[in-house]
């Protein structure tokens, strides 16, 4: 990646498995909070469809709502990841963890690569999450989804701290 100020290449460090996992947990927490608003019937125990004896009318009315809420929640999750990757290369969890998604050529991720990476994530989870666990063993810390989408997850370089100016006398 090239620095805008002096056009010198920056040495980037690949983000490891645990840092990425932590960022993903934060993202899942954010998405879970949003999804909880899509299924208000679960707040009152109406999601229990195995015992309909006590609430025969209400849970049956909740079934269509839950059936719609689940695909909408999945779609919003996909939009969350792809939109934030394409916008700034970081989800909220990635910002917190100090990591960023870039393409293997050092450029920013676009929507097409974001969608490819999201679909690659699904492929990576199918064989018992082996494609995601691959991050821990890969030289460049790429999971299968990163290899498919030609992306890296790197640590965000810290800016050098500048010396603070002394306060003016008498202040």
TrEMBL record:
<dbReference type="InterPro" id="IPR051791">
    <property type="entry name" value="Pra-immunoreactive"/>
</dbReference>
<feature type="domain" description="RDD">
    <location>
        <begin position="15"/>
        <end position="150"/>
    </location>
</feature>
<protein>
    <submittedName>
        <fullName>RDD family protein</fullName>
    </submittedName>
</protein>
<feature type="transmembrane region" description="Helical">
    <location>
        <begin position="21"/>
        <end position="41"/>
    </location>
</feature>
<keyword id="KW-1003">Cell membrane</keyword>
<feature type="transmembrane region" description="Helical">
    <location>
        <begin position="61"/>
        <end position="87"/>
    </location>
</feature>
<feature type="transmembrane region" description="Helical">
    <location>
        <begin position="118"/>
        <end position="137"/>
    </location>
</feature>
<dbReference type="Pfam" id="PF06271">
    <property type="entry name" value="RDD"/>
</dbReference>
<keyword id="KW-0472">Membrane</keyword>
<dbReference type="InterPro" id="IPR010432">
    <property type="entry name" value="RDD"/>
</dbReference>
<keyword id="KW-1133">Transmembrane helix</keyword>
<keyword id="KW-0812">Transmembrane</keyword>
């Amino acid at each position: 990646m090239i620095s805008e100020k002096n056009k010198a290449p920056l040495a980037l460090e690949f983000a490891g498995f645990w840092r990425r996992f932590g960022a993903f947990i934060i993202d899942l927490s954010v998405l879970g909070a949003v999804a909880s608003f899509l299924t208000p019937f679960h707040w009152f125990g109406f999601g229990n469809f195995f015992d309909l004896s006590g609430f025969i009318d209400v849970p049956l009315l909740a079934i269509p709502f839950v059936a719609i809420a689940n695909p909408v929640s999945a779609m919003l999750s996909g939009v969350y990841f792809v939109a934030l990757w394409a916008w700034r290369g970081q989800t909220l969890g990635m910002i917190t963890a100090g990591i960023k998604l870039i393409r293997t050529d050092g450029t920013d991720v676009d929507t097409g690569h974001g969608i490819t990476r999201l679909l690659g994530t699904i492929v990576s989870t199918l064989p018992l999450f082996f494609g995601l666990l691959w991050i821990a063993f890969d030289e460049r810390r790429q999971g299968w989804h990163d290899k498919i989408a030609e992306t890296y997850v790197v640590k965000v370089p810290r800016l050098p701290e500048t010396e603070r100016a002394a306060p003016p006398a008498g202040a």
